[in-house]
Amino acid sequence: MTTYELIKILILLLAISAAGIGIMTVYQNAKRTLLPIKSMLGIAARLHKEGELFDEEPKSVAAMTRIFEPQIMRDFPEFSWGEFKHKSENMLISALLAISAENPARCVDGADDIKRQVKNIIEDNRARGISETYSDITIHQTEIADYKKTNGKCVITIQSALGCLYEKRQDGKLIKGDDRYKTQTKYNIELVYVQDVEKVGTGTAIGTVCPQCGGPIRTLGAKFCEYCGSGITPINIRTWSLHKFYEVDYNRN
Q: 94-143: per-residue pLDDT in tens?
């Protein structure tokens, strides 16, 4: 074999080697590009289950504070929106944690109606074999959503958007949520001011019935139920208090 032929073979081998390196480089680059896409598709597939897609974007709220706060201030000059905004957020977080702990006593900054509501949720969950767990709760925004004056009372509806790690299990099986991804939702909270309890009447959600037997509380200063003898909290009139909360996201069961 001549020197010229050897040089040709060496050049050919070098070209093949270079081509192989190029192909491997292209393959590795493609692999690095495709892996994140594959990972994202896998996450999307895991998140999109039972028609539920977890969204990290906070829910929008009905931000009507600028409209309703001046009206409230005209009716109640001593009203402090900042104070009740803070109380409503504390109450909401504590109520959700109370449901998680199955302990209504953990509720704070709300009327007895809030504790009764949480107690009813816990008892209903137990009867159905359901447990709900809320953790890592973050409130993104809180605004006044509505203000109404009817039947001897005034009601301010406060709306909060929050994110939390949420799980709902039935008989140990996960049926809603995922403790790896935050659920975004929003709640309404009712702040009530009773002006005339006679106009409000009984059987409403502002503490005018016995929490034990459901009998009407006829006397404002009553300490005990006249029907079953249970101790009761006197009705608060002419003062603002938080009486009710409920989720606004209708996609949740």
A: 999 999 999 999 999 888 889 999 999 999 999 999 999 999 999 999 99
User: What would the pLDDT profile of 211-223 be if each residue is shown by its tens digit?
Assistant: 677 676 655 455 6
The residue behind tokens 């049926």 is 175
